[in-house]
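User: What would this chain look like folded?
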Amino acid sequence: MNDNRQIETNKSILIIAALILSPLVCGSYADYKPLKPQDQLRRLYAPYSMQELNCYALNYCENLFDKRVNLISYTHLNYDIPSWDAWHLHFPDDNARLIESLVYEDQYSPVVRLELVRRLTKGIMKARYPGTRAYYSFRHRNDGKTFLIFEDEDTNKLRLSTWGDYVMGYVKTGFTARYGKDIIDIEDCEYADTPEGAGRMSVARIKTDENGIVVTDGGASRYWNESPFVFEREFTCGTREIDFTGKYWFSNEDMPPEFAFSAAGADSIDITIGDHMINFGSSWKDAESFIHLPDRKTVYSSKADGNISFDNPDFNYFILRKGVNWTGRGYSMAMLVIFDKRPQQMKAAAEGGYGEIKLTYDKENSRAGGRVWICPFDWINHNDMDYVFSNAESFLKTGKLMHNGYPSQQIFDNIPAGLAAGAYLLAKYGDPSAQTALIQAEAAADAILLPELDGMTLDHRVFSEARAAAWMIRAGKLTENQRLVDKYTPWLQRVMKRMLSAESSYDGSGWVSGWRHFYATRAVWLAYEATENPEYLEAYQRAMDVYDIDKDGIYRNGEKMASPGDADETYFGSLPLGAWGHAGMLDKADMLINLEVPAGQKSGVSPETPLKELWHDGGAGPWTQDDAQPNFAGFCLRGLNIPQKAKTFTPLASFPLYDEQGNVTATYKPMVNNPYLPDSGCELLVRGGENIDLDYSVTEINFKPGWAEEKQFLVQDGGELEGGIRKINYGDKTPIYKFDAAGAANAAVDMVLQGNALTVDVSPDGKRWFQRLNTWSDESVKDSIDVSFLTGSRDELIKIDVITPSGDASVLKQDKNTQLLREHCRYVGRGGHFIYELDTDGLTECHLEFVMGNGYNVEFSADGEYWNDGLNERFKEVRDGAKTVDAAWLRIADVTPYLNENGSIYVRFSNNDSFENYQNTGAFLRRLTVYGIFDSDSVYVRFGNCPFGRREQAALSGLTFRKWSKKQKFNN
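Assistant: Here's the prediction, encoded as structure tokens.
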């Protein structure tokens, strides 16, 4: 290590062996300078060793932890601009990969971040889709929008799009209006937008200059956090006028994008969806497509049935499914189309795979018009589509989808492996929450493996299936659960046989691209660890010979790569670093970190940038974000053979550093100032010896419906008892159980269920209910939920309430000189204010998230009389030029100090008199979200039957209530 570097000046390195069973003292990063909102490839502490990059990478990811959702955020970059993704974009999929890295860190180092793994595992479980057996969301947003409506300049049509790694269009909508013999098509018209340019990306999110280049300094759009963003377009053709109104919502995934067309004086109007376009991908334009009707039985095929037409259709939605998907064979993509008013006719043209669908609306009261909502599903198992139908029926009945705050299904990839890895680590140290994680991991693994029996395979990501099966085997062996070992060993063999064949573009040593090669190599090693099959070890060793390196570049099978930093080969160097470090090829790893060769065009920076400069103070990647670090961190440590004289259990946000000799220090100094990071203490728990157990005291209550033991917990009878099964039909009185949770810090509910979508709600008092599960199964299966937020655990904040003007009358205690504008914002005039009285009864911890803008000032009070400073726009770090009028910011405040026995907290919202910065416009509030934790002596559990499922009956045949606490706690 280099003695003259800043980070080394006063690291208080402590020898673990001398501190067994004693807490470690806080260390520090010395004068480590926190990353700023524009820090990307900052290299103040270069040159790096592999072990140091590992620590930076994992600490940076931990530093991105978001207490609102128990997930790490995508990045900290641009947190001083409201229309970028800092803090508010999360990928459960990336979090799953990070969990695997943290499990490897425990395996190969003296540090175990058990609290972080537990909370990340809970965060992923929270991303489970309601109405599914075990599907999980790929991404999540607290800000901005997943789906947007943009213009198509060539056709005048409106394009449903998503803003992911790039802006991707799904489908176009347009119209054809009829006035007697005159027919006007959308392409014949001129138009004007409100707001001006509403269909452009630069208005929806980011500003651009006159050349279309993104303006990063002050490039804050006021509309990114607008909800709903209302896009109005007036089409004109001569004297004819056709109006379009589009709406899409801010981080509200239960509201699909809305398209409405209306033509004054028209005899009829066709709303067209598609235009023989590339529905879901140009290469699949002519792939067979299907239209599913709401009876869940009737299906039309573009190839077998051709064009179809319905006069006066008797349904309000349909599902368009294209029988192809980029992830592999057999899977599909789908689009849910809902309409509140039934058209007089619906036609679907078979060309292009139902590439154009027309809904015809005749004139009513001098106008012809209709409205549709469109929701894409990027990844679909066509044998398991009930939840898509259920979402449509939920929306038609309640005005909301059933997405639980997460966007529609995009891909099912790393999450089964991440859940299983998390369960493995929790079980390793006796954490009782492992049981819930393992039960959910099994269901998730089955969801990715069982479709193989129907010909559905993840060809491009077959290693995801292998990792899921391998982690389940490892978890089974660790917990002495032979059933899991016996179940998943044949699955692993099946998947590995395919992965180690030409079917997966395998040539006997390596896979077709570096990205697939290194991911597959890692999966092969994991398969070997799980089974000790020597064939897998040999395959791993052959794979390690495919790539090589010298001072001139990186080579594949002896052929020099043109660009050693390309994403599809080395993922900016992170993939080979993980592989070479793991294999003990430390000279190659060191050469890679210091490689002077230009990285190449796909590095995300100038192609002339040396690869060595892509490594930075946040770990790895072309910029500072959560994506590249899990490719090497943790896994790379195996080759260092770091001594593990004892295990250091680090609380969240302790940010440990350790060296190659096994010395550990806690810094408790964040790499970036994250307002959503939970507080932590200054001590770690150190344990020595083998088979470390953290000494939990666990109490279990088990019974089946109808047993005598059930009566003492059943406070409301419901359903129908039959042979030890409680069957619940639609409309039945719901059974409610009450369990004693006194003295427990954590609790969980395990159950055996079958049938229609069974809903499970929990409550601290039998009055306020929170849904924790909505799932189904045709067979009798186990499921499990964590309810520790009811018993005082700080592991999870639960969303207590969401308040949006104008629906704030129930909490509005005082209103002085405010007005409701933009449909959803409460503005404060000069000298005005308003006061909310929030119900916080029973909460032991409370956080408030505000979506607000302009010159706001927020104060808090326990009694409504004495006020304390809270959040003020003057003290928010904002980039020069980013004080855009009416642009909304997300801010969070811990109001736990103001909790009181009266069960209320008061919030006063006013101006800070900085009108001049916002064109004399007052402060506004758009949304207030209340997060909290209860500490109840009771847990109520209510079972119901989801009204939107296809099966008539839900059944409960077993119930376990578990509660536990640590005998020895972290001092945080």
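The longest strand covers residues 746-763. If you want, I can go into more detail on any region.
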